[in-house]
Amino acid sequence: MGEKAVPLLRRRRVKRSCPSCGPELGGEEKKGRGNPISVQLFPPELVEHIISFLPVRDLVALGQTCRYFHEVCDAEGVWRLICRRLSPRLRDQDTKGLYFQAFGGRRRCLSKSVAPLLAHGYRRFLPTKDHVFILDYVGTLFFLKNALVSSTLGQMQWKRACRYVVLCRGAKDFASDPRCDTAYRKYLYVLATREQQGMVGTTSSRACDCVEVYLQSSGQRVFKMTFHHSMSFKQIVLVGQETQRALLLLTEEGKIYSLVVNETQLDQPRSYTVQLALRKVSHCLPHLRVACMTSNQSSTLYITDPVLCSWLQSPWLGG
Prior knowledge:
Layout: H1 44-51, H2 56-62, H3 67-73, H4 76-86, E1 99-101, E2 110-112, E3 124-127, E4 132-135, E5 141-150, E6 156-168, E7 171-175, E8 187-197, E9 205-215, E10 221-226, E11 233-239, E12 245-251, E13 256-261, E14 277-279, E15 290-295, E16 300-304, E17 309-312
Antiparallel strand pairs: 1-2, 3-4, 4-5, 5-6, 7-8, 8-9, 9-10, 11-12, 12-13, 13-14, 15-16, 16-17
């Protein structure tokens, strides 16, 4: 018996190129075919819909191939489609809600309130005397308003958070009077980023951090202070009473700056200069990096990396 000849199979090398960059430069196009179509020419909604059918492991691997797919695979819409596909039962149900529970009085029942449909999650809540403020994860601050409504018996009653408006965008953090009694929370201090015009005669603009003060009763802005573009903050807390309100601002580098304002003069239409001072958390450890902070009326708690805590007792200007 003779041996059967088996033809040799040769591997063909296929040149791959980044989908966002198009075909590789210098390559010869085959006759009879047009120019290759780049994925970047597809609408973003179509690309997100196509890759949403991939398994999660393959989607993560695809996002590591190039910058274009990294941005597409990291989009919020893609992961929303994946979650709906993995959990079909949640498609027709609400995935987030907002409820209030009264801890005082005879009736301690839950009451449902309006949920901002445009909110990207709930990052922070702050109830005041009349309303509720919510900050989401993209920097949008929502103002949930209460209103007097008529009941079935014809009587007027308060309805908690029955409607909402967008107070501001680009917010990083916000704070109010640190006391537990909501009657003291007259003003809302919002740490935000705003585009400021450059020098006179130029069209360029730069992002600067600022503190905007709003009335909690109406949501009207009554005061604004803007900082130099070289200073970037990530958190704000309040200490002290109305006449000597201290604002503590935490930078990205872990440093704390403070300034003092008089809340009784904020509603007066005038401008004045405040002094921004760098404060020391510890005299023994001057280079201590602060990760976050919290406060009450007379003291502040600094939390450093990773677990070291330092109390600053009253008076707050002390070391």
